[in-house]
Amino acid sequence: MSGHEAGGLKESGERFSSSGFILAAIGSAVGLGNMWKFPYITGLYGGAAFFLMFIVCMVVIGLPVLLAELAIGRGGRGSVTTSFIRLSGKKSWGAISFLSILAPFFILCFYSVVAGWTIHYAIISFTGKLYASGDYAGQFSAFIGGWLPVLWHFVSMLVTAAVIMKGVSSGIEKFNKVFIPGLIILLIVLMIRALTLEGAGEGLSFFLRPDFSKITTESALVALGHAFFSLSLGMGTMITYGAYVDKRQSLGSGALAIGAGDLVYALLAGLIIFPTSAAFGLEASQGPGLVFVALPAAFGAMPFGAFFGGLFFLLLAFAALTSTVSLLEVPVAFLKDTFGLSRNASAAIAASLIFLIGVPCALSVGGAAPGLTFGGKTLFDWFDFILSNIVLPLGGFIVTIFVGYAWKGAAEEAGLRAGWFRLWLFMVRFVAPILVILVLLYSAGIIRF
Ligand code: PHE
Question: What average pLDDT does the segment 282-286 reach?
Fold first, then answer.
């Protein structure tokens, strides 16, 4: 495998079948971003108004960038760097590869910590320990306030590195073709339970009835960043998926299906978590622990809850594993190609570094180690904030400029009908890059309206 191919992709020369490509790309998009991050930031940044902004960012910026990344991948048929240079004929475009190595490396530092939380929660749900006290918030803060999360972060990186070393990523992806649709069934069951809880209505209106006075500069930035994070954009992941798509596949409908699939998981997560929080009097704006507090409350209130809860967190851990594997593959490929190291050595080095950098992240979020909070945000929050909201949108900005101005064959590759193509080109040339830059400058306080 060359360059920056995500783990789990088919060997070169092989192509995804049409449904295989869409399922694999949805598999990459759906992860902790949908079930953990989306509900907690929606809770923090004002509920329905934030959800609406997120949808707008997804449609107006996310989908055009997604289509652009898929087209670059299929047109260039190589790693991120190769595709950019091949399609534009200019070496200078290789610069994008820098962001696309940096971003996954640092995202993994906190993503793996949360993946570790889900493994721990799967176990304590199956054993029933999770439901013993009924104080889910207290239990979660005791857990993240201790050292156990470091152990689970280690386990998560160990499994990810083992998958990369053994080259069994495609096996994991096959699993996920069953698990990700399976998760939907579980989510629908949970949603029905959540919506029928007494007092659920208040949570539902928090999630679906917008209060526009809650929109702030920071919330707009976070909504934009999350559109990139959730669709796995801005760091070359979807470019590598594009490289495996058959020429006859319509990329436009593929992008729509991926966007819709990703949104459905977020919507279901919201329809479960906010009604449950309201019914049990839990704080929707409590931050990263929301899912780990609200969901156990819902599971605790249903028959066979311990089993369903365990199953849910297990499926979530698997959904996270596809993401951790595809994120680790990027620095591994870089170390291999740049320093001529073996695959095993590259994986060991990258995973160890990520583990080490992730330790203070893991300890900061629960306050286990003092002094890791700066300007009101923990180190964990800073990693997420800077990468998701600044680095990924910048990566997306570069993609839009490339497709809009530097690469002449974009029209043909995207295969859109004339009207749709003009709309897409207008979005990638003007709307998406200008909006990204405006949001970034505005949040940095450089411009004011
Ligand atoms: N989209 C994934 C999620 O929502 C996260 C991710 C981002 C995975 C970028 C790969 C690349 O969890």
Answer: 94
Contact 258, 25 (CB under 8 A): yes
Banded pLDDT at 12 (limits 50, 70, 90): very low
Q: Is 373 helix (H, G, I), strand (E, B) or coil?
A: strand
Å from CA of 389 to ligand 1 middle: 13
Q: How far is the CA of 239 from the centre of ligand 1 (A)?
A: 14
316 neighbors 35 (Cβ within 8 angstroms)? yes
Q: How far apart are CA 96 and CA 282, in angstroms?
A: 43
Neighbour tally for 71: CB within 10 Å: 32
CA distances from 333 to 169, 273, 303, 351, 375 (A): 14, 38, 46, 12, 35
Distance from the alpha carbon of residue 375 to the mean position of ligand 1, in angstroms: 26
> Residue 236: what pLDDT?
85
Asked if 82 contacts 122 with a C-beta cutoff of 8 angstroms, the reply is no
> From ligand 1's centre to the CA of 438, what distance in Å?
24
Considering only residues 137 and 442, tell me which one the structure prediction assigns the higher pLDDT.
Answer: 137
CA distance linking residue 351 with residue 347, whole number of Å: 6
Output the CA torsion 179→243→265→47 (10° steps): 150
Query: Which one-letter amino acid corresponds to residue 331?
Result: P
Q: What is the pLDDT of residue 247?
A: 87
CA–CA separation, 347 and 360 (whole Å): 21
DSSP symbol at 141 = H
Band of pLDDT at residue 449, cut at 50, 70 and 90: low
Residue 241 contacts residue 70 (beta carbons within 8 Å): yes
> Which of 260, 206, 188, 257 minimizes the C-alpha distance to 47?
206
Verdict on whether the full-model pTM lies above 0.70: yes
Q: Which CATH number fits domain 3-443: 1.20.1740, 2.60.40, 3.30.300, 3.90.1480?
A: 1.20.1740
From 28, 110, 267, mutation site for ligand 1 pocket: most ligand atoms within 8 A of C-beta: 28
> Which residues surround ligand 1 with Cβ inside 6 Å?
28-29, 31-34, 229-230, 232, 235, 237, 323, 326-327
pLDDT in tens, 213-245: 999 988 999 999 999 999 999 988 898 888 888
Do residues 278 and 202 make contact, with C-beta atoms less than 8 angstroms apart? yes
- Confidence (pLDDT) at 130: 96
Q: State which of 96-110, 202-216, 232-246, 315-329 shows the largest mean pLDDT.
A: 202-216
